[in-house]
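Archive entry: two folds, one per protein. Generate the first.
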Amino acid sequence: MANLFRNMGDRHVKVFIFFTLFIPCGSASQSIGLVYKTKNFLVSQDKEEFPLQLRFKVFSDLDYQVNLLNNIKTALHTIEEIPGVKNQQDVKISAVRQIMQSVVTADAIILKLNTIFKYRGSDIKTPTEECFTEVAHNLDLLIFAAENFISSSIKALKPFTVSEITVGSTGLSEVLNVLQDAYLHLRSVEDKTADYLSKLESLTSGTLSPDIYAMVQMSPCVASGELDKITLKSCEKTTAGILCSIEVETYLSNKNYEIYGPVNYAGVQIILPENKYLAKSPENTYGLLTCRDEAIEMVNDCIFSDWDPAEYIFGPDHQKAIENSNFTLSDPPLPYQMYDSSIMIMDKRVSIKIRVGQGTEKDISNTSPMCLNFGKNAAVTAVIDKIKLKFKGGTLDSGFEIITSMYNASTIAFMHSKALKLAFWNADWVNIMRYFALILQIVVLPVAFTTCSLSIYALIRSLLNRRRKKRKIRRQQKYKLKRNYLINEQAVKKTGTL
């Protein structure tokens, strides 16, 4: 291995690259090179930016809301005075329990209403932007409706006697139904109050919840169906509620780019620019995407620019691609499922098994780096150390297909040589030690295990052969002694003397 690296390190060495045989993976028509497609990337080409003001209303009549809820609590307690409830201990205990859960819920609503009221300020502010959206809470209407319904239901109850409230009786069912309906109404009001409070807390903490994002999306100023990005600028308390200023970016047209990542060859991979994406444009040109913000799944604000090395990476001359690229030491990533449902495996230490339906698992040879596409009814298991990964959702009707690297062992060794030179030049000792540890696991240990196994086998064969030879010699000696004894015995019989 050391001699191989020294030979490949010669700057004047000629590297001969040839295509190895491979089976296409999915719709792929080429074998794996220095990079591979990782995902599709939607990038904005044209956008419109404009300010929008959003106001969440806060009620001014807190006492009125609290009084309505206190009326509900008072009405609920009157059920305890119904003769059939009051004079039966078991019925009274059951009724009181249900009354108290509604009372506790009403108290929780009052607590949240008091918190919401704190978001009301003393300054009068009028929206100044052309685009303005106001969000009404409607909590006052909900509480009024709940108080009217619950109070009316309780008043409609008859003063049932003990004989009218028995197990299975109509009177008991009516009382329990009124208590259950009251609780459900109050829980609904509490949920809506908590949701509105959550929106206010989200705004004042400087974040936009998905609900608020949807409200802005539905604004008349934002065209229907367009993707947009929303940035919260500021919020302030007013006499009408929280008034927030938001910057809206509406994307008018988008283009889809293909993003590529480095392929890892036993701990070595090509160096790509940091904080940029190697991409293919819709016009089939290759370059780099520089994005303003961290990439998201929906739409991205990026600039596409040319990058000279991309000409070699994606060009037909693979020898120039190797010679004009720099390589670095890097741990192979774990296997993962790509955008097309195929599995990318770049670590030779991974053991791969496939199971179709309820059948038995079958081993798949690891020819990393490799891309594995499998059947719809199959499941693939990849194991490395104590990590076990399972993959489903293949696209093939049956069987599996594999795509492997286009480079032979000599070319891969040349990549390793370039990466090691750069690592030693930069004194990157941590990655160097991790690299050699990886190579030890991938190459040295299997070879050592095979060598030791052959040595042990040879030693056992030698011992067995030696033992057989000794047995043969002993048998021959025993035969000679016995033959001599018989000859002597015959001589004695003939002569009568020894």
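Generate the second and append.
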Amino acid sequence: MARRGRFSPLLPAGGGGLALLTVYGDQNGTRYYVEKYGEDGSFKSRFRLPDEFEPMRLALSPDGTALISGMRLGAPAEGEEKVRPFLGLFDRAGELVRDVTFGGDTASAGGGPSTANAAPGGVKQGTREALELSSVQFSSDGSFVLARLQGLGPIYTVSPDGFALKTIHPSAPTDSHLSSVVVNGSTIAAEFVRMKSGSTQHEISDVFISLINSQTGEQQALYHHSSWKIGASLACYKGDTFTFLAGDQNGQLQIVRAAAQ
């Protein structure tokens, strides 16, 4: 049987370059790899993940360690689901250094007390959508940032050696939901969108960007725009400038930069 492969979108890697999740499958099973490329597109490194993990989101640090969010497969412990969410730190050889856990982030799929005690936005075991609606990023201050992009979050920070640091429940404007998160040093830019009332086309009426201190969890500033020319796909925040991906009047993709005011 011919080998088949799948690729995740290219992601910025800590220290420069790009990171990529690759998936290969044949009659012998499915294998997952983490690859790093230089800024010029040259191949730098690659490691294979253990077979018990199905990665979905990745952040790569300059020293090659990776924080990965996804599903843990295989025989469960007593009382656990067969497929369980996981967040783990892996070394540059692909070995699991440690599981990263936040109280309330994972709830039982069957409901009950564990679900009732889960944090808002907590991931239900056995569900893929909540994990796919997440982002993991490396920050230039050395930490990792995990965001659950459903409802109002939450946002988590993780130390370089894989220990949970802080859970942030961002303050959202009325009738908005968390859409994306980008990181610049110790500042988290959390984008919230408000849908147009009465629209059946999933139209966005307002975009809000909350700047949050990742160490304290406090909001430093709140910005707003309602221009379709700027768009709602926040891609980067650096030097008081927000970079968006947006479509022009001809439907062509364009890069739009907006200054914080």
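Annotation attached to the second fold: The chain is about 5% helix and 50% strand. Residues 1-127 form one domain.
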